[in-house]
Fold this protein.
Amino acid sequence: MAVGSAERLTDDGTVRSPTDVLSEAFARHGADRVAISFSGAEDVILIDMAVRLGVRPQVFSLDTGRLHAETYRFLETVRERYDLALEVLTPNADAVADLVKRKGLFSFYRDGHQECCAIRKIEPLKRKLSSLDAWITGQRRDQSATRTAVPFVQPDIAFSRPDHSITKYNPLAHWSSAEVWQYIRTHDVPYNPLHDHGFASIGCEPCTRPVGPHEHERNGRWWWEQADGKECGLHAQNIRPVRIVG
Ligand code: SF4
C-alpha cells in the first residue's frame, strides 16, 4: 500500500493517518471524555480535522496570564471560526500571587522555568484532565530533541493516577513542519500572526522569541536553557518517566 504524505507507518508497521488516530480517540472515549489541547498551529489542524469528521470537539487552552496579545486574539479567531465552546483554563490565583510575591515576575530567567510552568500550566491541566479519559495534542517528532519518539497513542504516565488512566493521542506525530503548513494553506486554517514575524513555536511572551531561517523551531523557547530539557511539564514524560502527583 502506498504511503502518502498524510499517512505514515507506525512502529508496528501499520499505516495510520491523523484522521484515523483522531477517529480512534473519539470512538474509544466519546467526544465528552476526550479533548483537544489547543495552543499552536498543529492544534488548529486537529480541530479542523475533527470538524470535518463531523465531531464537535471539546477544546481547551491554557491561559498562563503571560501570553502575547496576538495569541489571545488568535484564540478568539479559532473559537469563532469553528463555533467552539473553547474552554480557557486559568491558574490558581493565590499560587500565582505567592510566586510573584516571593520571586518576582521573571524568576524563570534565574532559576529555570519549571516552577512557573508548574503553577501556570501544569496545575490547571491536571485539574482539567481529572475530568477526562484522554487528550489530543499536536506534538510532532521533529519538533525537538525531546520529542523524537512520540507515538500516535500512549498512556499518559505523567497525569494518570492509580484509579484513573489517561491516554494521550498525538495524531500528527510523524508530520513535518512543511506538512503542517501545507495543510494550513490548503484548508485556509487560521494561524497565529506571530508566525509571520519569525516565531516558529509560540508559548508565553517572556519565554518565546523568533528564530532564524535555519534554526530549529524549539530554539525560540526557553533559549537560556539546554535543548534536552525544553518541556514545560505538559509532556514531561518525553524527558523521563514521571508521574505528577498531588
Ligand atoms: S512558559 Fe515561561 S511565563 Fe509561561 S508558564 Fe512557563 S515559565 Fe512561566
Notes: The pocket of iron/sulfur cluster is lined by residues 64, 66, 108, 113, 116-117, 120-121, 203-204, 206-207, 232 (CB under 6 Å). Helices lie at 18-29, 41-52, 69-82, 93-103, 108-111, 114-129, 177-186. Confidence is low (pLDDT under 50) at residues 1-6, 241-246. The first strand starts at residue 8 and ends at 9.
